C-alpha cells in the first residue's frame, strides 16, 4: 500500500479546492499580476503568466486517469480572450464533460479534418497517375461505399475493431468483395504510414493478423451460378442476336477463349449468312497479344 506524504496530500487537496472554487480572479487582479506563474480562477480554468510578459488561458481536466490541458487563447493580443470569454469557454468544456464527451479528443478530430480516412484515400487514388478511370471508380466504390464507417475517422486512429466492423458483413455475404475491400484498405493505411500520418502495424493486414479473426474466403459457404448443360449450348447460341455483347458471347462460346481475352479483342466480325465468326490470323489483338483461339 502506497503512503502519501503530507506534502503530496496538501498539494492534492489544494488542487481539488482550486477546481471546486470558481470565479477567484477579477479583471483588476489579472492586470495586477506581474510574476510568472499559474493563477487559478477555479473549476479547471487557469491563467498562465509567461516570463515574456504575456498571459494566456487554459483549462485542465482529467479523463480516464490522464490529465488534459486545453488552451483557450491569450488575455491580450490580436484576438484577446477576456475573463468573461474564458469563463464561457470553460463552461462549454464542462458541459461537454458532463455529457460524457472528451473535449481534447474532439479537438484533435477537428484539427485532423484533412487527415481522415476518406481524405487520405482520395490522396492515395489521386497519386496514381497511371490508373484508368474505371480503376479509380472501383477503388472509390469499394472504399467509400463498403467502408463508409471509416470515412470520417482520423487515419491515425483506424484500428482492428473498425476494420473488422467493415469486413465481417462482407465476409459473410460477399467474401470476394470483402477480400478486395480489405486489400484496398490495407493499401491506403500503408500509404498513410509512408506519409508519416500514422504509426504501428497495419490493422488491415491479412497474414498473421486478420487471418486469425476472419474466416478464410475459401471456407465461406456460398453457391455458384447454375451452369448451362452442354446439351443446351447449340440452342442457346442459335438464340443469340447480333448485338455487340451477343456477338462477343458467341465468340467466347465457339472459340473457348477466356472471357477476359474475348472482351479485349479489337474486332469481332460475324458473317451474315453462316453466322460464324469470320477472322484471319492476327486480326484479333488484345493487350497480351493475339487471341489464343480462332474459328471459321
From TrEMBL:
Keywords: DNA integration, DNA-binding
GO molecular function, one term: DNA binding
Domain Core-binding (CB): 115-193
Coiled-coil residue windows: none
Pfam families found in the cross-reference section: Arm-DNA-bind_3 (PF13356), Phage_int_M (PF22022)
Keyword Iron: no
InterPro entries: CB, DNA_brk_join_enz, Integrase_DNA-bd_sf, Integrase_DNA_bind_dom, Integrase_recombinase_N, Phage_int_M, Phage_Integrase
GO biological process per UniProt: DNA integration
The family this protein is said to belong to: Belongs to the 'phage' integrase family.
Protein name as catalogued: DUF4102 domain-containing protein
Organism this protein belongs to: Neorhizobium galegae
Organism placement in taxonomy: Bacteria, Pseudomonadati, Pseudomonadota, Alphaproteobacteria, Hyphomicrobiales
Amino acid at each position: 500500500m502506497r503512503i502519501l506524504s503530507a506534502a503530496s496530500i496538501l498539494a492534492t487537496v489544494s488542487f481539488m479546492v482550486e477546481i471546486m472554487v470558481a470565479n477567484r480572479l477579477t479583471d483588476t487582479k489579472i492586470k495586477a499580476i506581474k510574476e510568472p506563474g499559474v493563477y487559478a480562477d477555479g473549476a479547471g480554468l487557469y491563467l498562465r503568466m509567461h516570463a515574456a510578459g504575456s498571459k494566456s488561458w487554459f483549462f485542465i481536466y482529467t479523463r480516464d486517469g490522464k490529465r488534459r490541458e486545453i488552451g483557450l487563447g491569450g488575455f491580450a493580443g490580436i484576438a484577446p480572450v477576456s475573463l468573461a470569454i474564458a469563463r464561457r469557454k470553460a463552461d462549454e468544456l464542462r458541459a461537454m464533460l458532463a455529457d460524457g464527451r472528451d473535449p481534447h479528443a474532439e479537438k484533435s478530430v477537428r484539427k485532423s479534418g484533412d487527415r481522415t480516412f476518406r481524405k487520405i484515400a482520395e490522396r492515395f487514388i489521386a497519386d496514381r497517375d497511371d490508373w484508368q478511370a474505371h480503376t479509380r471508380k472501383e477503388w472509390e466504390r469499394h472504399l467509400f461505399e463498403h467502408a463508409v464507417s471509416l470515412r470520417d475517422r482520423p487515419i491515425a486512429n483506424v484500428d482492428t475493431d473498425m476494420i473488422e466492423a467493415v469486413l465481417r458483413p462482407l465476409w459473410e455475404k460477399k467474401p470476394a468483395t470483402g477480400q478486395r475491400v480489405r486489400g484496398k484498405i490495407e493499401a491506403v493505411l500503408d500509404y498513410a504510414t509512408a506519409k508519416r500520418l500514422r504509426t504501428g502495424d497495419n490493422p488491415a493486414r491479412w497474414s498473421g493478423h486478420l487471418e486469425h479473426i476472419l474466416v478464410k474466403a475459401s471456407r465461406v459457404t456460398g453457391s455458384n451460378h447454375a451452369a448451362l448443360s452442354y446439351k443446351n449450348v447449340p440452342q442457346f447460341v442459335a438464340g443469340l442476336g447480333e448485338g455487340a455483347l451477343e456477338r462477343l458471347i458467341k465468340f467466347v462460346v465457339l472459340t473457348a477463349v477466356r472471357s477476359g481475352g474475348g472482351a479485349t479483342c479489337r474486332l469481332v466480325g460475324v458473317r451474315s449468312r453462316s453466322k460464324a465468326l469470320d477472322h484471319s490470323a492476327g486480326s484479333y489483338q488484345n493487350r497480351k497479344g493475339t487471341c489464343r483461339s480462332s474459328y471459321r
